[in-house]
Write a structure and sequence with these properties.
By secondary structure, the chain is mainly β. The protein has one helix and 14 strands; from the N terminus they run βββαβββββββββββ. It folds into two domains: 37 residues, no CATH class; 103 residues, Jelly Rolls.
Length: 158
């Protein structure tokens, strides 16, 4: 894969995304967590929340809100009621980071389970089969960050 930059067309005007490493790069050369003063000077970024983000339903009455939905980077808040689960699957290109916000989230990874409690996270690299489940008696909410995005990159295994 080359090192070409893909322009992100979003409210953060002037930023670029290097898909190979999932690294932000501004037009001023800022990268890897350095402050981007150009963004501050140009305009204030818009706030996003579950109230104004695109909503969708999935699985057994689960909810998702797309907080950031770009070609190579997505941030989603998802909520799963007690007893719900998704289909075991993998992504060929996308790495995913799950971060539990409330409750506890069970992620079946390969032949075992990882249980995330509030304020814990795990990265699932591309190519690793996984299945997210809520085996608790209450709701679970989590952030899901994918790079690149998972559109047309999901292979169901069940």
């Amino acid at each position: 894969m080359g090192t070409s930059l893909i322009t992100l067309q979003n409210q953060l005007n002037g930023l670029f995304f290097e898909s190979e490493e999932c690294v932000w790069l501004s037009t001023t050369g800022t990268r890897r967590g350095q402050q981007n003063n150009q963004l501050k000077e140009d305009r204030m970024p818009e706030k996003v929340s579950k109230e104004n983000a695109a909503h969708y339903k999935w699985g057994n009455d689960c909810d998702g809100w797309r907080l950031k939905n770009e070609n190579n980077f997505t941030v989603i808040v998802e909520s799963m009621p007690a007893g719900s689960a998704e289909t075991k699957h993998l992504h060929q290109k996308s790495d995913q980071f799950f971060y539990c916000l409330e409750g506890h989230l069970t992620i079946q990874v390969k032949d075992g389970n990882q249980i995330l409690f509030a304020h814990e996270g795990i990265t699932i690299p591309a190519g690793i089969p996984h299945k997210v489940r809520n085996v608790s008696d209450g709701k679970v909410s989590f952030l899901l960050v994918s790079c690149p995005d998972t559109q047309e990159d999901r292979i169901n295994l069940e």
